[in-house]
Design brief:
With about 400 residues, the protein is an alpha/beta fold. It is built from 16 helices and 15 strands.
Length: about 400
């Protein structure tokens, strides 16, 4: 079976790390190839795995709404549709059995599928507007039409599934697989004061770094040695806004902007508690990553976060900035509570986010699609034979 993957960026943020977990789990069951839009860190990972790839510039089918972006919208759509011919030429030469788009923000895989009549799998990882403030070029109705044209949709959470509302027969919820069962190790007890908090991911308003800083500023009287690590990259003007906010709240000496950190172990060694403050979250890969390392999470009660965190059992959920601050203080003050949550969260993550189960579920989707296509092809052939004989 040959599968060609469309990746919407070339860096090692969550979607691409989940893609790498997938192809690792699939192993030799699938012959893989990837198309990426530009050079980036993903190239090294693909080379390590001996996965063939092509750099073929293409644009996202989404935009941030401004008056200028609306004016340019028809031209963007025309340009993107024209690119399909260039992409289709390459895809046709590779002769894949299935096309797999790794994000909903790109439609190049779907249009190539329609043009070449090759089965298509669409991995839906984001809400679009609610989490990244992105609008679709073809509008909401156009997006849903395209989604329902896909042979199968993989949603990364039940929350995403409810949002997509595609045909029940052609969609499946499959949580990202993140851990190899042979590499999971029990974490050691934390003897340090519970004082280092962190928020991990792309820095933008919808990801909630501002709320993290505001809540953190309310904890310093209760947690004298508290520190907040903001880990990730983003637009420089927004980072500067957050830095000025920290200064205004008199916590700038306690807030560190680390930039992007490639090594996950280095990220999680810095923090005792993970904050997930997104205004909407499709899954939040950082949640199981922290759980498996024994790091409790405080997450906003939105999107898929309540699917992954049971309040006061495997983590904390909050609705207001004040509640976030109170939960931070509670974990700092009670080592018994801290130990209980980290142990239960570890067990949950160990059962739920294994790469083996993730890859097997996706492979079953591939098999189902090809079986259905072959069945339809045989049915059409029989119909043609009957027509000729009458």
């Amino acid at each position: 079976m040959k599968v060609l993957y469309f990746l919407h960026y070339s860096e090692l943020y969550g979607a691409n790390r989940s893609f790498l977990n997938l192809i690792d789990g699939l192993g030799d069951k699938v012959q893989k190839m990837a198309i990426i839009p530009d050079s980036g860190a993903i190239e090294n990972e693909l080379n390590k795995r001996r996965v063939a790839y092509f750099i073929l510039p293409f644009e996202w089918s989404t935009y941030e709404r401004t008056w200028l972006s609306e004016v340019k919208r028809p031209l963007r759509i025309l340009r993107r549709l024209t690119n399909i011919l260039r992409v289709a030429h390459l895809v046709k030469n590779y002769e894949p059995d299935i096309l797999h788009s790794n994000s909903s923000v790109i439609t190049v895989g779907m249009f190539t599928s329609l043009y070449l009549n090759i089965p298509h799998v669409w991995h839906i990882r984001e809400f679009g507007l609610d989490d990244y403030n992105l609008h679709y070029d073809f509008g909401e109705s156009g997006k849903r039409w395209l989604i329902n044209k896909s042979d199968h949709i993989i949603n990364i959470s039940e929350s995403i599934s409810e949002y997509v509302r595609g045909k029940e027969s052609n969609q499946t919820t499959i949580y990202n697989g993140i851990f190899d069962k042979n590499e999971i190790a029990e974490f050691s007890d934390c003897e340090e004061p519970i004082s280092n908090f962190g928020i991990v991911g792309y820095i933008l308003p919808n990801k909630g770094q501002e709320e993290a800083i505001r809540a953190f500023s309310q904890t310093i009287n209760s947690i004298p040695d508290a520190h907040l690590f903001i880990i990730g990259t983003g637009r420089q003007d927004y980072i500067e806004y957050l830095q000025k906010l920290a200064e205004k709240l008199n916590v700038s000496d306690r807030v560190t902007f680390t930039g992007f950190i490639v090594n996950q172990e280095e990220i999680y060694k810095k923090i005792h508690v993970l904050l997930v403050c997104s205004k909407k979250e499709g899954m939040g890969r950082v949640i199981p990553e922290a759980m498996i390392r024994g790091i409790p999470i405080i997450g906003r009660k939105v999107g898929a976060i309540p699917e992954l965190i049971e309040h006061k059992f495997t983590g904390f959920l909050y609705s207001t900035t004040q509640e976030l601050a109170e939960n931070m203080i509670a974990l700092h003050k009670s080592r018994k509570l801290y130990r209980s949550i980290r142990q239960k969260a570890f067990l949950y993550a160990n059962q739920t986010f294994l790469i083996e189960g993730y890859a097997n579920s996706v492979f079953q989707v591939y098999q189902k699609i090809l079986y259905k296509r072959r069945k339809n092809a045989v049915s059409n052939l029989l119909i043609d034979c009957k027509t000729e004989n009458t």
